[in-house]
């Protein structure tokens, strides 16, 4: 299936990726993983990005975007606080819903791999919807839909929706929770994870290697004994491994 992600991978393989030769700084950004209790269990809100957008156009994502100067308020050096404000603002702008900044729990940080024409260092938060009605903004987001984590992953496997690695891995982690309360309690008690992927090609596709992996600093050690934290992006399916 052709997709923006597959096209990006192929451009990287052939050396034709725009901006790949340039050092592009990762812009600070924030994302909010909105949760609710559905009739069949935990659900998460996904937004389909406009197909006209250059960055992950057409992919299904969590609401989010760049951290704006106004998000810092009177604390220009307080990035965590600004990230929370940005997450709340983006939830309203892109999805029409209200979120309590104080109720958000820090889940992870994702940095776009080097060599991408656009790079973001994104704070991921989780939290419940506090009010408002889900409405796509019609500019950056075209459609909103609540999914169970397994439902979204099955739709991706069937080629019905596209997910980027951060959404894919986050949904995998959310599968273990039955309710919003379960998820919030467990995530709040855990340490947030920093995902700074390094991108490599393998015979049957590509992969992202994360810092805890034995091969993170040396891809020649892909088969070496040691800890694994990687995501295989194979054409026949994705496989996430974290020891």
Protein model, in words:
Helices cover about 25% and strands about 30% of the residues. It has about 240 residues and is of the alpha+beta class. A hairpin with a 2-residue loop joins strand 1 (about 25-40) and strand 2. It folds into two domains: about 5-195, Nucleoside Triphosphate Pyrophosphohydrolase (Alpha-Beta Complex); about 195-243, no CATH class. The longest helix is centred in the middle third of the chain and has 17 residues, at about 80-95. Helix 3 packs across helix 4. The strands form three sheets. Strands 1, 2, 3, 4, 6, 7, 9 and 10 form an eight-stranded mixed sheet that branches. The chain has five helices and 14 strands. It is globular.
CATH class of the largest domain: Alpha Beta
- Cα-atom radius of gyration: 18 Å
Share of helix, binned: 10-25%
Report the biggest beta sheet as strand number plus sense, adding barrel if it closes.
Answer: 8 strands, mixed
What's the average pLDDT? 89
**What percent of residues are in strands?**
25-35%
Please tally the helical runs, counting DSSP H or I stretches of 4 or more residues: 5
Instruction: Output the CATH homologous superfamily of the largest domain.
Output: Nucleoside Triphosphate Pyrophosphohydrolase
Q: Tally the beta strands.
A: 14
Q: In sequence order, what are the helices and strands, one letter per element?
A: HEEEEHEEEEEHHHEEEEE
Could you provide a short overview of the structure?
The protein is an alpha+beta fold.
Secondary structure blueprint with pairings:
Layout: H1 4-14, E1 27-38, E2 41-49, E3 60-61, E4 64-66, H2 79-95, E5 97-98, E6 105-111, E7 120-128, E8 131-132, E9 141-147, H3 149-157, H4 165-174, H5 180-189, E10 193-195, E11 198-202, E12 205-209, E13 229-234, E14 237-242
Parallel strand pairs: 1-7, 6-10
Antiparallel strand pairs: 1-2, 1-4, 2-3, 2-9, 5-8, 6-7, 11-12, 12-13, 13-14
Helix pairs in contact: 3-4
